[in-house]
Design a protein that fits this description.
Blueprint (H helix, E strand, L loop, with lengths): L1 H13 L3 H34 L5 H22 L7 H5 L6 H12 L3
Helix pairs in contact: 1-2, 3-5
Length: 111
């Protein structure tokens, strides 16, 4: 993601968008790979949480707090305030939150 962002910035500054367009298929291909890696990381998180005698519902709480943060940022944006932009960037390659919440809820239920 950093390499693509730097390429995009360089392309915008220097006026060469062919570099950005050439890198786009690579980024899209890596996003799918990243999502698979995140699914595997979530499964590992369940294993670690259980080993520590912590319910996977703790992750549901995390996603609820992240959603609250996003909503607050959206409200700030509608008021003309600058929201925190790191949140979207940090999770762009991750599976949808709803999918992850469902996974952790099922893990907490023992499924």
């Amino acid at each position: 993601v950093q390499a693509t962002a730097l390429s995009a910035l360089a392309g915008a500054v220097l006026g060469d968008f062919s570099t950005v367009l050439a890198g786009l298929p690579v980024l899209l291909g890596q996003a799918s790979y990243s999502r698979q890696a995140e699914h595997e990381a979530d499964a590992q998180a369940v294993h670690i949480l259980r080993a520590a005698a912590i319910s996977p519902d703790a992750m549901v709480t995390l996603f609820e707090k992240l959603d609250e943060k996003r909503r607050k940022a959206g409200a700030e944006e509608s008021l003309g305030l600058k929201p925190d932009s790191w949140l979207g960037i940090a999770f762009a390659s991750h599976p949808a939150d709803a999918e992850r919440v469902q996974f952790f809820r099922q893990a907490a239920a023992g499924r």
